[in-house]
Each structure stands twice: as structure tokens, then as C-alpha cells.
User: What shape does this take?
Amino acid sequence: MMQDFTLLGVSRGTCYSPNHIGNDEAIFREVVAVLKEQGYEVSTCTEKEVVKEQRTADVIFTMARAKSTLTYLQELELKGALVINSTFGIHNCVRKPMTELLLAASIPHPPTWIYAIEDVDLSEIVYPCWFKRGDSHALIKEDVSYIRNTDEAQDLLLHFKKRGIDSVVINQHMEGDLVKFYGVQETGYFYWFYPSIRNHSKFGWEEINGIAKEFAFSSEELHRQCDLAADVLSVPIYGGDCVVRPDGSLSIIDFNDWPSFARCREEAGRYIAQCIQQRVSKKYSRNKIAAALKV
Assistant: This one.
């Protein structure tokens, strides 16, 4: 295959894959393998290496999460590199901006309060609820905590303050079935499952809602809402969690840029590669048209 662009894959740092290091590495390797199988020349590096070595490419697909890596990749993106998922989208998936964007777009979501740590008003909180650090993805179990009363809330806020966390997102707890989902925009690919039934967990949070009762709901509506959320956040390769209430209504409680796709890795890898190819084709078709117009 003649390839008129350079293609670089940047893997995720292990500290950003709590209890899922192997799964995150595996989906990254799967996508690289599919692209190479289809004739693409692909180079890869870690997110530390891309900054240290000042690596560049025309097209970069990345699972990076470190602020220094995203800052560097965003500079390349602003200079014209195609980055998938966009660094702007990855930033959008940090808890506080993610929640604000989803609420503003009327994506189904639990009742929510967002505070600077110093300004939390515990008198407004309805228990039980979930306290989630607002400045990052979850790195340790305490970053997303189930809170049953004011004493637990005060203890966790003190823990956040000691760690330098400056904001907190508080979601009202939703009773119902926990559903995990994965999707790849513009390919039609969407996969969901009950983590309690499939014994899938990162920190054990799934135990709070218990074994799924399998309440009836529209998987088409879940897919539609997730694709809308992906549009709002600018992350075509996505995953997350949703609670299905007994009446079938939905509440999206988490949304992530490029998750592990652990339960559907081989199939998802091909769709992720397809997404990358489609975006490359669009970019270079536009470039050719622009070049022709200048002649």
C-alpha cells in the first residue's frame, strides 16, 4: 500500500489504567495489528516517549491521558496533525467538564452538584450519592466513592484536599441495573453488557447496584444517547456506564475516551481501525480538494 502520511500510535501510561493495564494494552495492540494487517505502516510509542523524543506524525491515534502528553499532542494537532481521539475530546472527558457538557446537552444524567472543594455545601446533598474527583479520571478507588452520610462525605473531602484535588462532582445514587457500553462513532458499532453478570469490575463499584435484574430498556435509545454524548465530548472512540431504572429510563453516569473494550476486543479493534481509516480518508480528501482549488 502506498501511504502518503505517517501514522503513529501512542499507548496509555500504566498509572492511567488502574486494574486494567493488560486490557488497555491489549486493545491498543489489537488496533495496531489490524492496521498493519490492512497494509498501513504504523509506528508506536508510549505516552512518555512521545514527549521525551518529540515524536511527530501526520496522523496520531492515542490512548494518552497524562497532561504533559496531551499538551504536546495538542500542539501537534493545532499545527495540523490528525489526532484520534482529539486531545480536546480527551480533555472534555475529565470529570468536571464532562459532566457540565453532558448536562448542558440534556444527555440523561443523574441529579448532580459540582463544587470547588472549598465550597461544598453538604446541606444540599441527597444521600446516598457518589463523590467523584472533578479534576481527573479515577486513578484510585477513592476517586469515585459511594457516600451514605455527612460523616463519610466530610472524611472523603478531607482526603481530596490532602491530595490537592480542587473540585468534586456529586451524583445522586440511581437505583437500577448497571450497564457498561462501548462504541465507535460512524461505524455503527455499539456493544453493551451487565458487568455484574459478566463479573467485570475495575474497583468493585458495581457491587453497590447488585446483580442486574435485567429491566427492559431500549438499547437503540442507549446507543443514540451515547453517540450524542460522543458528539458533545468529541470522542468518537468511547465507552462508559449507564444505570437503567426499573421503568426503563436511562442515566449515563460515566463516559470515557477510548476504554479497554475488554469484553469485545477483537471485534472492536476492527471498528476502531475503520474509524481511523475513515477520518484519514476525509482529511486527505479535503487536502487534495484544497490543493486542486489552488492550482
User: Anything to note?
Assistant: Residues 288-295 have pLDDT under 50 and may be disordered. Residues 172 and 186 are 32 Å apart (CA to CA).
